[in-house]
Design brief:
Blueprint (H helix, E strand, L loop, with lengths): L6 H6 L11 H6 L10 E7 L6 E3 L7 E3 L1 H14 L3 E6 L19 H12 L4 E4 L14 E3 L2 E3 H18 L3 E2 L8 H11 L6 E8 L6 H6 L20 H14 L3 E5 L5 H11 L3 E5 L1 H12 L5 H14 L4 E4 L2 H11 L1
Helix pairs in contact: 3-4, 5-6, 8-9, 10-11
Amino acid sequence: MQDKIHLVDDITGHRRMRRNRKADWTRRMVQENRLTVDDLIWPIFVIPGEGIVEPVASMPGVNRMSVDKAVEAAKEAADLGIPALATFPNIEMELRNETGSQILEANNLINRATAAIKKAVPNIGVITDVALDPFTSHGHDGILRGEEIVNDETVEQVVRAAILQADAGSDIIAPSEMMDGRIGAIRRGLDAAGHQNVGIMSYATKFASGYYGPYREAISTGGLLKGDKKSYYLDPANGTEALRDAALDVEEGADMLMVKPGLPYIDICWRMKEAFGLPVFAYQVSGEYAQIKAAGLNGWLDEEKVMLETLLCFKRAGCDGILTYFAMDVARHLAKHG
């Protein structure tokens, strides 16, 4: 029999990586990570009024919705199998003040939305944030005293807000204001109020990023912000500090950890999953979404392909799920194509 060994066989030692890539069925059989509808959390924006669906200009395909429309959207999301929503309010400017005190109103916009969604769609999770930026007149996530975002007073307020949000039916509190000690304080406050079953998804590593612009438009804080958020958000240069921050949140009782933004910090996703073993989530933020949408609308890339690829990257990096404005598009795609 003629020896058919090729030079390449000698070089590779008869190991050929392309064998497992030769056909669609083999590629599917050995695929290491898969994106499913169970990986998706859909962030939505809620505004006052009734019957309102208002496009966000810098986020094509994303709308601000009145509570009744948010309920309709929640029903559609649940029908597609999306496990949870994350809700963010855009309240009236006249209700915003230096301390963000509107967050302490039991019947405020975010709590009304939670109660309405949980009543109409009890099988979908609702995740709420206690950061003050949608409620302050200065656009910061905490209470501003002079030139300083005060830590301890802010923590006291977000604990009270967390209890009110849990009272309204929130399933998971996701504190994003990055104050020291907030996770432990919220856990103690929730437990003391009888909310032992309400989880905490910590924005464990929220970076002082340039990717938040469209979000700030969506909740009308962009023009309000005085200065920057570098005294409480993480420096984009610091990975080790991010892990230290996350470690404190784990010690204080966080049930889940989040990295925000997502793709620019995908290394942090992997490091957190390896270090702590808790469920890890990435927030594919507004700027990431807007980049893909803009390039897709201009024909510069295949929007659907890049959308799916970026979300799969989070899975490869160890994420258990992704908060993404693409959630409904992805869910529809998966329902159609599997």
